[in-house]
Amino acid sequence: SVVLAQVQPDKTVHFVDEVSMHNADTRVVCREIIDRLKGVDGRLIRVFGDPAGRNRHTNNNLSDYDIITDEFNRAYGHRFVRCWATRDPGQMNRVNCMNAMLINVKGEARCFISSKCDELRKDFERVAWVQGSKQIDKRGKSDEDKLRTHMSDAACYFIAEEFPIRVMSSGRLNI
After folding, report:
1. Could you tell me the pLDDT band of residue 133, with boundaries at 50, 70 and 90?
2. What's the per-residue H, E or C state across the chain?
């Protein structure tokens, strides 16, 4: 699950597209992304992701990030920038960062979602906490809902890395 986003000069985020391919290998997904980004000339291509992308696979001893690096270096050269997290910021932190971008305490929306991002929209509408806990409910109410959280996880890893929660000197959180 991949979301394609643009950060505007005013620091708003526009999720412009998504790639959801079931049972596709990393190279196939990379090629789909590269194909969708054909019109993006001269800009940096920054790739974010969760720390699990570093895990090596037994069938070829390459991690997903090794494969992404190979494919994107070939397509974009020096314009490709790796921005994946070195550690998981934690589920609650990722969700808080995302919620603050969707609408902050001042009532400002700093995140906008294209109609092309159907799965991301469904995630934001349907994913909820397990009642009484700090865990996302990944069980789902239907077979379709069991696929929930993948697209929002992709968006949240990007947002948490690019727009992290910062603790101010007063001890208050600044999002």
Report:
1. confident
2. CEEEEEECCCCCEEEEEEECCCCCCHHHHHHHHHHHCCCCCCCCEEECCCHHHHCECCCCCCEHHHHHHHHHHHHHHHHEEECCCCCCCCHHHHHHHHHHHHCCCCCCCCEEECCCCHHHHHHHHHCCECCCCCCECCCCCCCHHHHCCHHHHHHHHHHHHHCCCEECCCCCEEC
Model confidence at 10: pLDDT above 90? yes
**For tokens 């789909």, what's the residue?**
32
Beta pairing class for 2-7 and 45-47: unpaired
Q: pLDDT tens, 16-41? A: 999 998 888 899 999 999 999 988 87
Handedness of CA 59, 60, 64, 68 (dihedral sign): negative
CB proximity list for 143: less than 8 A, separation 6 or greater: none
